[in-house]
Amino acid sequence: MASSYTQKQQNDFSKGSIVRNIVRLAVPMTFAQLINVLYNIIDRMYIGRIPENATMALTGLGICLPVISIVIAFANLFGMGGAPLCSIERGRGNDREAELIMGNSFILMLGCGVVLTVLGLWWKRPLLYLLGASEATLPYAESYVTIYLLGSVFVMVGLGMNSFINSQGFGRVGMFTVLLGAVANILLDPLFIFVFHMGVQGAAWATVISQGLSAVWIIRFLTGEKTILKLQKKAFRLQSGRVRAIIGLGLSGFTMSVTNSLVQMMYNASLSRYGGDLYVGVMTVVNSVREIISLPVQGLTNSAQPVMGFNYGAEEYKRVKKAIVFISVVSVIYTTAAWSLVHGFPEFFIRIFNQDKELVAAGIPAMQIYYFGFFMMSLQFAGQSVFVALGKSKRAVFFSIFRKVIIVIPMIVLLPSLFGLGVDGIFMAEPISNFIGGMACYVTMLITVLPELSQE
Questions:
Q1: Which of 444-447's residues contact partners 24+ apart within 8 Å by CB, and which partners?
Q2: I want to staple 105 with a disulfide (CB 3.0 to 4.6 A). Which of 82, 221, 280, 401 is the partner?
Q3: What angle do CA 123, 129, 135 make, to 5 degrees?
Q4: Is it the case that residue 441 has pLDDT exceeding 60?
Q5: What is the pLDDT of residue 328?
Q6: What is the total count of domains within the chain?
Q7: 241 and 195 in a common domain
Q8: Which residue range forms the structural domain that includes residue 416?
Q9: Interval 163-197: pLDDT, tens
């Protein structure tokens, strides 16, 4: 009883320093996100150092990124949709319903993984051409995506079911799940790519095997004695109301992932048209750098959500406002510093992923254009974080769609043909969307949320 009481006191975010509460969550969450990003980042770093045709191989992998995003989106749909429902039912003392939700989510992941594998393999060639593949890059993209799709079920379970471990309070176990896959990927990548000379196929096999290890670990834990909720066959029968609840709650995260994939498809297709394979490779590097430098601000804003939500529910509105100020200031400072580094030393960041002189030369101005005014992106992160924390997730989804679909995609289509901008116009779409979308999201948050928080 004493330990339970102590744990409850530690998780009472209405007590103590609001900043300390946020930072205490931010460190492990950021580390977990870093490990998760390593899966694809490590592949790109090693592929970019293949002795022959490194740039074409890296470009081929970049073409596959929207497909990878789609698979992850479906894993999030069922994982991030089902896990919170499990937590709610556990809080109500209804462990039986929580197990049924977990079982239904598991079957949905397996079924969806099989469907994605079949459809992806059936349509892979026309799909890759649609994503910007050329005759030169198609062999590399096809080699990678074929193997990756064969392991879709592992990816779905490895990513999606880990949410159900974390939702039961086994944070360290969930962390180990991700760490197991990441370490395996780091070790297998150079072995398959360079020692066995498997190239892009080796990177794909390393990723699939790593996710397979994570999936096996998850299933063993959820069917073992240490778990609270057990994964059981009797919970696998799908029930329509339960399925609708899972999908309904997971739809916001799914929508954001799908729009990311759609934007990446448009970037690859436009860059392939106006700049050729070289600039699709440049975009792969630009995205890889973005994933890394965005991690700290994403970790901070994501970790602030439960703290703000707890205090909002407890009607500690002054503490919520302090949290908003804190994450806003820190996010702006960090993204300004990150922008300065990328703008001042673009070649350093590019060479992490590729050493090709032609790609480096093309990548330097592209990086400087793409990341111009990157600090405005912090307003998007902070605004959406507040909306989600206070239960206003529809607004968060709207502004994600607003920035990516309503602003970025039209800019990608229109700017290259204006004033002879070409590829520079394509890269300009991102900073323009950051300024317009970031400002719109943050100002809307201030106008709609602060009056509510100012009420006594």
A1: 444/383, 444/395, 444/399, 445/382, 445/383, 445/386, 445/387, 445/395
A2: 82
A3: 120
A4: yes
A5: 94
A6: 2
A7: yes
A8: 294-456
A9: 788 767 676 777 788 888 888 988 898 999 888 88
